[in-house]
Structure formats: structure tokens, C-alpha cells
């Protein structure tokens, strides 16, 4: 970019995005705390990461998610109504949830209200009561949501794909659960899950915003030192080896009233701290990660087979998945599947050219800094860095790594990480119209929309 100053051109070079400074300390109970001061706006963002995800659900799928939701149903010092009213009064937002590997609490509040809100967060994390009546109400909401998901294949196909791809590995656990597993849960189950999995050792508290780190360290130490360290050491179930499929498999999920087919084509992917993660992201951006991607051009723009097609790498701590995703009318199911596979094969057979690679690199660099603009973005980043064992170099060398990717390395990345055979495919659609098509692509297993292979 050039600026004119008194007739002379001045070249301004954009500065690379760098991770702002932050401090870290660990309480005696094992809780890791990261503090990052940001004084632009009088707001604080907080992300708590806890080792209490769906990988610990065992035979009670959905329990991790319900336990996380139940944290806000009342505590030792606040009823649910009191919690809601106290947070509403100061305009604070506090949300709890559980993903596949971990549970989290995310909060955003005014800096002036930090004393009150942090006290509430302490109660939510340390002293939940799991009232039976409130839990049953929350469970019924979850059951309604499970039923509603069946009407939207794009919301539920992830779970079917994970079950097919990961098999008996805990990464195949279904975070939201099923009607049968969730329906059998009660408040005692949630309380037991909390006791076994919610502990400060293995957890992290990440706080970003308008505060003094010294003052915040004292406050957090006083509030959370009472959280008792767990003496139980959960088995690291997620670290167990993943089974690599040796044949192509197709899971056909019958939705009798479907007018279109929603499908995933994929394979095992990579863990989040894979050394080639940035390079993989760049190439996936070009292949299926943006509107002008190869997949979207071929399936939407050039052929009109769908309104959109994408690809993504979902990376977890010890592994992950790759998937092409789209949807199409029943009568164009075969054409869309073939076209998606054609684009994947072309990625391998033709590789990339310098112009397309440069375009993807510029796009990725342009999208990177806006991902970390707010206090919540930054607290979430610190949480990710904690969970996936990432250090500052992930951020501080990101643009350098992007610039260093050349055509030779890019084509090696394609060959190494982008699948081309033994693909795993999930289709949700009207089986009577697409079953014969599905049989073309691998060993077929057909189930109904209200069931899973694990059930």
C-alpha cells in the first residue's frame, strides 16, 4: 500500500499480527490461569476449559452436554432465578456447554461488574446443586431439540459421520445423545458426572479485558483456591489409537420424507497440533473452504447441482476428520456425488498452480487477524492454546508459515493429507430413491433417521 506525502510515495508495510502479551500462573489445586490485559473497551471476556466432554459419556450419550447445561440451574448460593436475575441486572452473559473433548464456560461482562460476576462464575463451576426438577425440565428441552434435529439433516449429519468414521473410539460418541440415552438420564447422573470430571486439575481459566493482572490474580486466587483438586485420574480415552478404515463404507440414513440428499464424503484427518496444520488449512481453503473454492465452483456455479459445497478438517487433540459436505435434489444425488469425487481426484491428479496457491495464501492471511479482534475471541484463543498444547509461535509465526508454503510443498501436503480412496460416506435422504446409487460407493449399511449404528 502506498501513501502520497508531499508528492513522494511512502510505502507502508502491514504489520504481522502478534499475540498480545499475557501472564500465566497455576493454583495449588492445578487450575491454570491465563490473564491478558486489553484496555480499549471496559469489557472482560472469560473462557473456562474443563476436561468434561462427550468422550467421557460412556453408555450415557448426552450426559456431558446436559451436565454442562445444568451448571446454571442453581448453585449453593443462588437459585436458577437468582442467577438469571443477577446476570441480567448487570447485562452479563454466561453460557455453559460441552463439546466432544471438553466442557466450557464462556462469559462477557462489564469490567466494573467483575467482582459480582466472577463470584457467580465461581459458584457455577464449584457449587452446582443439580436440582432434580430443574434438571428434568432441561432434559425435556434437550429431547425436543433431538427430535427437531431430525428435520434438518445438515444439523445432525456430523454425528452420523463421526459414528461411521471413528467406530468404537470415543471420538465417535454423540455429544447431544439420542432420545433413548437422554431420556434415561436423571439429576443424579449429572451430579456423578460432575464429581468425576469437573476438577481444577486439567482445567484452565482464560480472562481477557480491562483489568489489572496483579489485581485479577489476587481475585482469582481467592475465589478458586477453594476448588478441591480431584484425586481421580481419568483414563486418557481419546489418546487411544484410531482404527484406519481399510474399505470404503457408506451409511445411508433413511429420511422417508426427504426431497433432497445431504451427504458427507470423508476420511480420518489430523490432530490440532499437527506441524502441517497451517499448510493444510491453506490448501483446504482453496479446495472447499471459501465461496470461490474448487468444490463450490464445480458443484454450484458450473453444474448447478447444489446451493453450496464445502470441505473442512475438524481437528481434535489426538486426531480428526476430513469431510466434503453438500446437499442436492434426490434426482441429482448420483451426479453430485460423482462431481464431488471428480473434484477431489482432480486435486490429486492436477495439483495446484502458482496463481491459485497465491490467492489462497492471501485469503488466509487476510482472514486471520479479524478472528482475534474481541475479548471473547482472545479468551477463546487462550483456551484453545491450553487444550491443544499450542504456544505463542502458532500465532506469531502464522503469516510467516503461510508465506513459506511453496508449490512443491503444497502438492506434497495434498498427497499426504487429502484422501483419495477408502472414503467414508454418509447420505441422509429417501432410501427408496437413492439406495441403488449409494451401493456404488462402498459397503452399504442402512438405518433410519431415529437411530444410530451404535444403538
UniProtKB/TrEMBL annotation:
Residues 51-156 form the Peptidase M16 N-terminal domain. One of its GO terms (molecular function) is metal ion binding. The lineage of its organism: Bacteria, Pseudomonadati, Bacteroidota, Flavobacteriia, Flavobacteriales. InterPro entries: Metalloenz_LuxS/M16, MPP/UQCRC_Complex, Pept_M16_N, Peptidase_M16_C. Pfam families: Peptidase_M16, Peptidase_M16_C. This is Insulinase family protein. Residues 185-362 form the Peptidase M16 C-terminal domain. It comes from the Bacteria.
